[in-house]
Amino acid sequence: MNTTHPGRRGFLLSLGALACQPLAAVANTALPSDSLYQLPASLTDQEGRTFELASLRGTPLLVSMFYTSCEMVCPMIFETIQYTVKALAPAEQKALRVLMVSFDPTRDTVPVLKQAARAHGCDERWTLARCDDTTVRKIAAALGFQYRRLASGEFNHSTLIELLDVDGRVVAKSGKLGKEDATLVRATRQALSGHV
After folding, report:
1. Which of 13, 33, 122, 131 could be joined to 135 by an S-S link, Cβ 3.0–4.6 Å?
2. pTM of the model
3. Average pLDDT over the chain, rounded to whole?
4. Is the backbone of residue 58 left (phi > 0), alpha (psi -120 to 50) or beta?
5. What is the pLDDT of residues 39-96, one digit of tens each?
């Protein structure tokens, strides 16, 4: 009799484990339909590391797009994000991440991105990334970011800074440059509230 109970118990436990396994898998992989992380996108950062866009899931993220040879607007985007980060408490600053995606992958090679990161005072919280033209267009479309190459090789482009929540949904955006946007700072604090 003792030999049958452990077997039955083990069988029931294994059924319970099987029943719970798909739920755990869904909890780990299911994304909201409006998540940027639904987009299959492979990028390369300023250190030459390749990563999937969805790997950024789990922490609030400020995201924008740029190109390194821009001499006016793009430096202001970097500066504005720096102001936004500095407006946060130290623990909030530590928890926040920043993603800057280049829409000029031909010129913005890994060494160029690394140089740009140094020039703009970007620390370990910042990821400057490049990807192929098709992926750039998909990311830009998902973010509502517009850009157009001019005959000169320069670009006309949006100046959006967007805040993604932990699941990659846009929860705030700003087009203000030159100083922090108080509304974006408040939204960032709110998004970080469970992470500090």
Report:
1. 131
2. 0.83
3. 86
4. left
5. 999 999 999 999 999 999 999 999 999 999 998 899 999 999 999 999 999 999 999 9
